[in-house]
Specification:
Elements lengths: L1 H30 L19 H17 L6 H19 L5 H34 L13 H16 L3
C-alpha cells in the first residue's frame, strides 16, 4: 500500500509543479505581451471554427505535454511555459481590461486549462517520481486520457459558441 501512497504523492507534486509553471508563465505573458512576438498569427474568425476543429487543435496542443512522459518532464516544462506565455499574451493583447478578458475566457478556459494542467502533471510525473527515488511507468499518466479528451470536448463546445 505504501507504493500507492507514493504514487499519489508524486502525482500531486507534479500537478502542483505544472500549475506553478503554467501560472507563472501566464503572468509573464500578460506582463510581457508587448515584447513577445505574435503567437499563432492572425486571429481566426471564431464563427468559422467548428467543434471538431477546435477539439482537434486542443488535443494536438496537448501532445507535447504527453511527450514529457518519456522525457521525464523536460518537454512538458517547456510546453507549459509556452502555453502560459501564449495564453497570457492573448489575454493581455485582447484590447479588453484584464478582468473582462479573463471573464470572457473563463467558461471554456476553465475546462481547457484544467486539461492542460492534468496533462502537464502526467508528463511531469515520471521525472518527479525519479526525484523521489521512485520508478514510474511513463505511460501510467495515459489513464487520464478519457478525462482530458472530455474536458477538451467541453472547452471546444463552449469556445465554438463564443463562451
Amino acid at each position: 500500500m505504501a507504493g500507492l501512497s507514493n504514487t499519489y504523492h508524486y502525482e500531486s507534486a507534479a500537478l502542483i509543479l505544472a500549475t506553478a509553471v503554467y501560472g507563472a508563465s501566464f503572468v509573464a505573458g500578460v506582463r510581457l505581451e508587448s515584447r513577445l512576438p505574435a503567437i499563432g498569427g492572425p486571429q481566426a474568425d471564431l464563427a468559422a471554427l467548428t467543434f471538431g476543429r477546435l477539439w482537434l487543435h486542443n488535443v494536438l496542443s496537448l501532445a507535447p505535454l504527453w511527450a514529457g512522459m518519456v522525457s521525464f518532464g523536460g518537454v512538458t516544462l517547456l510546453w507549459l511555459v509556452f502555453q502560459g506565455l501564449a495564453h497570457g499574451s492573448v489575454v493581455a493583447g485582447s484590447g479588453l481590461p484584464l478582468a473582462a478578458a479573463l471573464l470572457r475566457l473563463l467558461p471554456h478556459g476553465l475546462f481547457e486549462i484544467a486539461a492542460i494542467l492534468l496533462a502537464g502533471a502526467a508528463g511531469l510525473s515520471p521525472g518527479v517520481a525519479l526525484l523521489h527515488d521512485e520508478v514510474a511507468a511513463p505511460w501510467r499518466g495515459l489513464r487520464w486520457l478519457p478525462l482530458w479528451l472530455a474536458l477538451l470536448a467541453v472547452a471546444a463546445l463552449l469556445e465554438g459558441r463564443g463562451a
